[in-house]
DNA sequence: ATCGTTTTTTAACATTTGTAAAAGGATTCC
DNA sequence: GGAATCCTTTTACAAATGTTAAAAAACGAT
């Protein structure tokens, strides 16, 4: 997925503004299992996924909980770092070899003050991430794990192929045993 | 709570920009039990709460689920309407007589394109709402209902006084019977 | 192909949570 | 101030989910 497409999808930018934004972005690659972001640190960069799949997880007591998957076209970001300059909760681990676009957020902050189009791009970016987060929250509050699993099959069936069920069970908020029972009932 | 304080808390605005924003805002009052926002409609306004407390709820099958409480200084908004001009999920009911500041979002959208300070105000607004939503999601995914109830007592003890336990149980994602059991164990 | 590792399923049992109904308290409104 | 309503707790039982352990299946590297 090309970076121009990702950026313009968020909010179409005039040529000059787009060029300024692109100047803050590099392309980088990391292997499967690489830990891209560490929890409890302030992250200075955000990433857009060109190719690959990743998961965000954190610890509850001793056990790891996976709370997000990201794939092509999506953004890897520690919102707490980005918005409030505070340490975030997420560890981000690559589940496949990945190609990423890396954006220095400090440079971005400067552009927000200088260019109204980029400020509105930043607004739309936050708004769209907000809608996604809200949808996740609503799904969690209103659907059972079984329903969310069915949704996952319907709308993100590639996840099943690319991610092991232990992570998916954790993401759904149930044990792997429970997920196995749900899968069993569908047969 | 004064509107200038609410607005400037989000992002400090120059005099002229603030004046433009204030020109889009009216003060309104509604009684307890008034239904301020209806689900499945596109809402053209957002509200800031001057005085009072409200809840957002939606239906899961036949049963009402309360998924948010708002009080003084907070924003009542259908994010789906605001961001995507699509019908939202929230019904908003006033739990007390309320004084609100009402903002016409259409006018706001125009200002975003004209004034970089207001564009950045809008960006910060979305970012801060995003952090709040993310924190709610994390709390839900990482804490048990009992832990979230303890949190509620610690950080929002006024809710216990102002809101009946049935709504709080629903908000915590458990039945009222379960909440009663949790409360019983603490004695 | 095979050994070793990882992933997924199955089983038995314990624990938690939900459901429905009743009873006890508190509050509201003539 | 008292009937009616609403809110909260309690009880008994049913259903769902978790825990632990073991077996089965799938996958990877040599």
- Characterize the overall form of chain A: elongated
Assembly classification = homodimer
- In percent terms, what proportion of residues of chain A is strand? 15-25%
Mean pLDDT of chain A: 94
Distance from first to last alpha carbon of chain A: 36 Å
The total number of structural domains of chain A is: 1
Could you name the CATH class of chain A? Answer: Mainly Beta
Strand order of the largest sheet of chain A: 1-8-3-6
Which spans of chain A have pLDDT < 50 for at least 5 consecutive residues? none
Can you walk through the features of this model?
Chains A, B: Residues 9-112 form the Cyclic nucleotide-binding domain. Chains A, B: This is Crp/Fnr family transcriptional regulator. The structure is a homodimer of 187-residue chains. Chain A is of the alpha+beta class and 187 residues long. In chain A, a hairpin with a 2-residue loop joins β4 (53-60) and β5. In chain A, the strands form two sheets. Chain A has a four-stranded antiparallel beta sheet with strand order 1-8-3-6. In chain A, strands 2-7-4-5 form a four-stranded antiparallel beta sheet. Chain A has helices spanning 3-10, 15-22, 79-84, 105-114, 116-142, 145-155, 157-162, 165-172, 176-185, and strands at residues 25-30, 35-37, 45-51, 53-60, 63-71, 75-76, 91-94, 98-104. The radius of gyration of chain A is 18 Å and the shape is elongated. In chain A, 50% of the residues lie in helices and 25% in strands. In chain A, α4 (105-114) packs across α5 and α8 (165-172) crosses α9 (176-185). Chain A starts with a helix and ends with a helix. Chain A contains nine helices and eight strands. The longest helix of chain A is centred in the C-terminal third of the chain and has 27 residues, at 116-142. Chain A has a single domain (3-142), classed as Jelly Rolls (Sandwich), CATH 2.60.120. Chains A and B meet through α3 and α5 of A and α3 and α5 of B. The structure holds a DNA duplex (30 and 30 nucleotides).
